[in-house]
Amino acid sequence: MAGYMPARADFMEEFDNYAEWDLKDIDFVDDDTDILHALKVAVVDIYHSRLKERERRKKIIRDHGLINLRKFQILERRYPKEVQDLYDAMRRFARVVGPIEHDKFIESHALEFELRREICRLQEYRRAGIQSFCSAKVYERVKHVREDERRKRTMLVDVLQYIQDGRACQQWLSKQAAIDAGITPVVTTITTSATGRRSAPPLNLTGLPGTEKLNDREKELCQVVRLVPGAYLEYKQALLNECRRQGGLRLAQARALIKIDVNKTRKIYDFLIKEGYINKA
User: Fold this and answer.
1) Which residue range is the domain that position 266 belongs to?
2) Where in this chain does the record put each SWIRM domain (predicted)?
3) Which residue in 177, 233, 242, 247 has the fewest CB atoms around it within 10 Å?
């Protein structure tokens, strides 16, 4: 853990690190009034309570093995995701119970999860009429083959996504050939544009509020930019108002007005200038 000194078994920066500042200037003298003396004693008592809280937190860290946080995280990852979620939820209650009781609680729930998963697997075998583990092995093998066949039958759906782009289709075919040959394919991003990102399909404006207020060119812009008509009309009006107020508008000002993706802002800005709605500053 950062800031922990193993040789001293202590931390460089303490919890409530500046607690001492509140009483560094306190000095008990004989001519103090009773009220002032009581006030100074109260400050010292408060400081003692803060020291106790500091030591309590140190004890929790040591008892639960949180000093080596990386080792703690590695141990946590060996649990299934469902148990990890429980572990994360119960971490805040670790200070209430001892470390052994906390670990027993987590381990018991991990065992319960494994038993439930095994019971579900055995119930699946029973529903399939399997009564021996030898038959279960054959069933699992056939099940995997059946899932592979089902995946191949739906392969055409993936092909259709890239059929319009020769490069993307070639990458996909090379990947599938490597999989069929038993070779782990190199992970590549299938691209359909020069930016290296798959082009999203145009937005369907059917039934969206505000569509009837757009002309054909504005509808085309909303489809390409994937912006709902209501939002486009709002952004358009904001840019028009700012342009009228200043007599012109720069791209940087447009980006400051509408807090969306900068590429979408540029397309809207260029479109409005091209159509004559606004002027460049």
Assistant:
1) 211-274
2) 194-281
3) 247
267 within a domain of the structure (yes/no): yes
| Beta carbons within 8 Å of 179's beta carbon, 6+ residues apart | 185
Sequence-separated (6 or more) residues with CB below 8 Å from residue 72: 65, 66
Boundary (domain end) residue, out of 63, 90, 105: 63
Kindly give the confidence (pLDDT) of every residue in the chain, 281 residues in length, as a single tens digit, with 9 standing for 90 and above.
566 776 767 777 788 888 888 888 888 888 888 898 899 899 999 999 999 998 888 888 777 777 776 776 777 777 888 888 888 788 778 778 888 888 888 889 889 989 999 999 999 999 989 989 898 899 899 988 888 887 776 665 556 555 656 666 677 677 767 666 655 544 444 444 444 455 567 788 877 788 888 898 898 899 888 888 888 998 898 898 888 888 888 888 888 888 788 888 899 999 998 888 888 87
Last residue of a domain, one of 47, 63, 79: 63
Number of domains observed in the structure of the chain: 2
Indicate which CATH number applies to the domain containing 229: 1.10.10.10
Closest CA relative to residue 17, chosen from 45, 63, 52, 51: 51
- Whether 268 maps to a domain, the answer reads yes
Judge whether 17 lies within some domain: yes
**CB contact set of 281 (below 8 Å; sequence gap of 6+):** 246, 247, 248, 249, 250, 253
pTM, two decimals, is 0.41
* Helix axes of 133-153 and 155-162: crossing angle, nearest 10 degrees: 30
Question: Residues 47, 49, 55, 58: is their CA dihedral positive or negative?
Answer: negative
